[in-house]
Amino acid sequence: MAFGNRKLYKTPAELRLMVEPGILTAAALAAVRLAIAPGVTTLQLDAIAERVIRAGGGVPNFMKEPGYRHTICASVNDEIVHGVPGDRVIAAGDLVSIDCGAEVGGWNGDAAFSVVVPDPSRPEVVAQRQQLSDATERSLWAGIAALATARKLNDVGGAIEDSLQGDIEYGIVEDFTGHGIGRSMHEDPPVFNYRVRGSSPEIKPGLVVAIEPMVTMGGIDSHVLADDWTIATNDGLDAAHWEHSIAVHAGGIWVLTAEDGGADKLGPHGVIPVPVA
């Protein structure tokens, strides 16, 4: 999915127009999350997301990607991103990552989450997968918190990487990054999920980015499956993916694709999100 060449900083009026697609993206993901259960297919989850977005007056923006015909990407277990919905049946214990976006009035939202389906018969597998998902989500919020205080965009990647340092050696996928978002779902600048040297854009009012760490249980090398979309780990180990779209404005930051603007998760970081005015 290529980046579009759009201006890096939006006007206050443009930021306000990005609130609605963010809210609709969050609603679609919330509906999908409630429906994830053993026996449900990824195509059924796709239909749920599409209904929510269209009922809310939006358009599934993933469908605008050349050659892609679905509302969500559904990546399971060793699949990192871009999983194509189909007849795959969700099983107990699966680690499911859902990525989705909505366009409203020509403006875009983009977000993702990972969830582990309960499986009492395999508690160790579920625990390992949940730990990976939790670590990935924490790294996302560490990156978002850095966006509130740092001067340069590359500091976000440093915060994500630092968050993932610990007893378990997780892999941070390098072939895919976060991105700017606005009139196009994928715009400049890229947002790295790891520490990068050199210059990067200034974090200042008008910047809107989608931060999306993709983290693996093992190596970071990957390959494309036969559907020409789904990206899976080479070693067959699990991957998790979390994402939010965030606006930087004169009053602070606001997580456009979180129902509370990110207040619950940013609180422990000492960051209070401020609504786009």
Describe the 3D structure.
A hairpin with a 6-residue loop joins β9 (178-180) and β10 (187-191). This protein has helices spanning 12-17, 19-35, 42-55, 123-149, 154-163, 263-266; strands at residues 59-60, 72-76, 79-81, 95-100, 102-104, 107-108, 111-116, 171-172, 178-180, 187-191, 208-211, 214-216, 222-224, 231-233, 239-241, 244-249, 252-255. It is of the alpha+beta class and 277 residues long. It has six helices and 17 strands. The strands form five sheets. A five-stranded antiparallel β-sheet has the order 10-9-11-16-17. Strands 1-5-6 form a three-stranded antiparallel β-sheet, covered by helices on one side. It has one domain (12-269): Creatinase/methionine aminopeptidase superfamily (Creatine Amidinohydrolase). The model has no long low-confidence stretch (mean pLDDT 96). α2 (19-35) packs antiparallel against α3 and α4 runs antiparallel to α5. The chain is globular.
Low-confidence segments, given as residue ranges, are none
What is the CATH first-level class name? Answer: Alpha Beta
Instruction: Tell me the radius of gyration.
Output: 17 Å
> What is the assigned CATH homologous superfamily?
Creatinase/methionine aminopeptidase superfamily
Can you summarize the main beta sheet?
5 strands, antiparallel
- Which structural category do the helix and sheet elements fall into? alpha+beta
Count helical runs.
Answer: 6
Helix/strand order: HHHEEEEEEEHHEEEEEEEEEEH
Walk across the major sheet and give the strand order.
Answer: 10-9-11-16-17
Number of domains: 1
**Can you give the mean pLDDT?**
96
Strand proportion, as a percent range, falls in 15-25%
Query: Architecture, CATH level 2?
Result: Alpha-Beta Complex
